[in-house]
Amino acid sequence: MTTLSPSGQAAGQRKVRRATMNDVARLAGVSIKTVSRVVNDEPGVHPSTAERVLAAIDQLGFRRNLSARNLRRGSSTGTIGLVLEDVGNPFYSGVTRAVEEIARLRGRQVISGSSDEDPGRERELALEFCSRRVDGLLIVPAGLQHSYLVPEMRAGTPVVFLDRPAGDVVADTVLVDNIGGTVEAVTHLASHGHRRIAFLGDAPDIFTANERLRGYREGCVRAGIGYHEELVVMGPHDEASVTASLQRLRTMREPATAVVAGNNRITVYVLRSLAGVAEKPALVGFDDFELADLLSPPVTVIAHDASALGKAATDLLFARLDGDNSPPRRVVLPVRLVPRGSGEVHA
């Protein structure tokens, strides 16, 4: 693991300047024009020469500066990069709005993109934003490898991870209390007499899904109902898989009488699958969602404020831009149970 200070410096190292096209040319033993042709994918460069230039680019961590004109006008490009899992998810829409509001007050614009839970896409977006010389990066990580950001962080670009931590660098991180939330969901259902409580979670290699599964296990132990593997179904999920899982859980020899849904999408899939079913299991969903309070019965949720997550992460980012060099921070935001009806059905 590479340990970095909030300013992006590795322990014991001074901040280094970003590699330039001149640096690449010197290392590769070619002219700046040749480097420019390779960077811009222009013809006329021998393949072996192009390979030498690309190797030098990788070694130096060179990023093409797409905002040179802005940089010539001042030290800031006036932009913040935001990499999300899915900008179409209402939860991340709330995060984005909070980031934009703070950035606007600080005279910055936000450019964002969706990784679609693909680590390669996350890396592509993050480095594209770096090539545009964003003043800072906010990332909801899709993978566990973030050493690709080390050259940018060493050069002074602050990076804050939100919703999930980075995999192999130490940096500012803002999370929600995933474990405490699912503990509360299980103990709440158990308090209404449920002993067979199922958990439908996202892919277990996703940090939030794994943490919520840990909370479910801990909640089962605290409630004295034991942990039963046959009641756990991890994703990724779609409506068909949730429907099949619920059918199995509701018809097994000792059926599940309650369900904890691991995120807002899974909760919606559960509701669609149970539409028209006379005797529905009790339900608590992690993440609130629009119209949850207007359904019949209204949906009990573990709620956390998406805007608070975006605000906390953006505040940390601007603190670093303002010169804060204190050690990396890990902020965990609270969640709360919102009882509305679906989680209060007695066994």
How would you characterize the overall build of this protein?
The chain has a 6-stranded parallel sheet, with helices on both faces. A 6-stranded mixed sheet has the order 7-6-8-9-10-12, with helices on both faces. It has 12 helices and 12 strands. The protein has helices at residues 21-28, 32-39, 47-60, 68-73, 90-105, 119-131, 150-154, 178-191, 207-223, 239-251, 264-274, 306-321; strands at residues 79-84, 109-114, 136-139, 159-162, 172-176, 197-201, 232-234, 258-261, 282-286, 300-303, 330-333, 336-338. With 347 residues, it is of the alpha/beta class. The longest helix is centred in the middle third of the chain and has 17 residues, at 207-223. The protein is 41% helix and 15% strand. The protein starts with 20 loop residues before the first helix and ends in a 9-residue tail after the last strand. The relative contact order is 0.13. It is elongated. Strand 6 (197-201), helix 9 (207-223) and strand 7 (232-234) form a beta-alpha-beta unit.
How would you sum up this structure in a few lines?
It contains twelve helices and twelve strands. The protein is of the alpha/beta class and 347 residues long. The chain has a six-stranded parallel β-sheet, with helices on both faces.
